[in-house]
Amino acid sequence: MSFYGPANRLFIENTLRSGHIDDSVIQGCELNDFCARDILWHKTDIEDVHADNSTFAYVRFDESTFIRSGFISSSFNDCSFDTVTLSGLTLIKSIWKNAFFTGGSIRQCTLVRACFTNMQIVNSVLSDFEAAYALIDNCFFLNSTIELNYGNGANGFSLSRLRHCIFYNCRFKGFPFRGSQLDDCLFFYCHGESGEMEGTCMINPKIEETRKSLINTEREQLIDMLALSLTEAKEPSSVATGAKPEFSNFAQAIQYLKRNFDFTELDLFTTEADLVYVNAADRRILLSDKHDIIRHESHGEPKTTDKNGFQTEDQAEPFENGPGRFSHLEF
């Protein structure tokens, strides 16, 4: 179902009384002071909507996209966001409490003076956002990317305050924490460009330091963080850390790509020991043999640490292959 224009608010409210909204598009509607509670919001996109001072409570957002809309001073309490994209939203002074955000992205959103409390962000991307003077309190970031891309003019968490937050296996790009104030924040296995941060934070702290930092954390939040860590946490891999993989043959390279990337084209390749096969129509073609396997010498990249202790990498050396049938392949 599609709702276009400001006159559709009544129809939207009537639809939500059923407890769910599915496969719909809401575009150009006036939803200021809107209220949605205990709703399943499935595959329903919002575009060019004005929803300032709105309230969302116990709403389960699923596989939806919000684009170029205004949610100034809106609140999201006890909401879950599963595979949701927020793009170009105005979320100034918005309130997020006990929210769970997984498998989605927040891109080019304005979060100035927003307030995040007891929120979990898992397997998600925060990109080119503006969160100046925001308060991020008791939040957990897991397997996520926080980035500012050159030329977009966003400042990330600059001038914001982060208290009792935990970052586990996250990647930072473009110095998103430059100028932020941190209080008792913990970083585990994080990498990239963090920026110069003020206040107190610990990088890969010892158990005593971790315990001391978590002693004032709410019990429910601790349970959520533990559950997520046990079920969602991934072992820091070479992809997350940016380490240069080492291969002794073409089969290892194919196995690495299949293990770390989800490209349908890789399903055509199979390996047996050091041999690589590719399926072409109804044929299975051997790409390598025992007498002609790719050989190369890998050079380890020197790692350094920035001012805050995060691992960064020096300029990578050119990738060099030895002689062989596949010496000119690029990975």
Describe it.
This protein is mostly beta strands and 331 residues long. 13% of the residues lie in helices and 34% in strands. The strands form 3 sheets. It has a 25-stranded parallel beta sheet that branches. Strands 26-27-28 form a 3-stranded antiparallel beta sheet. The protein has a two-stranded antiparallel sheet with strand order 29-30. The protein is globular, with a radius of gyration of 23 Å. Mean pLDDT is 83; it is low at 237-241, 293-300, 315-319 and 324-331.
Mean pLDDT: 83
Question: Unreliable stretches, pLDDT < 50, 5 or more residues?
Answer: 237-241, 293-300, 315-319, 324-331
Overall radius of gyration? 23 Å
The description of the largest β-sheet is: 25 strands, parallel
Kindly list the characteristics that best describe this protein.
34% strand; three-stranded antiparallel β-sheet; 25-stranded parallel β-sheet; mainly beta
Would you summarize the structure shown here?
The protein is built from five helices and 30 strands.
SSE arrangement:
Elements: E1 2-4, H1 9-16, E2 20-27, E3 35-37, E4 40-47, E5 55-57, E6 60-62, E7 65-67, E8 75-77, E9 80-82, E10 85-87, E11 95-97, E12 100-102, E13 105-107, E14 115-117, E15 120-122, E16 125-127, E17 135-137, E18 140-142, E19 145-147, E20 161-163, E21 166-168, E22 171-173, E23 181-188, E24 191-192, E25 198-203, H2 207-214, H3 219-231, H4 238-241, H5 250-260, E26 269-272, E27 275-280, E28 283-286, E29 303-305, E30 311-313
Parallel strand pairs: 1-2, 2-4, 3-5, 4-6, 4-7, 5-8, 6-9, 7-10, 8-11, 9-12, 10-13, 11-14, 12-15, 13-16, 14-17, 15-18, 16-19, 17-20, 18-21, 19-22, 20-23, 21-23, 22-24, 23-25
Antiparallel strand pairs: 26-27, 27-28, 29-30
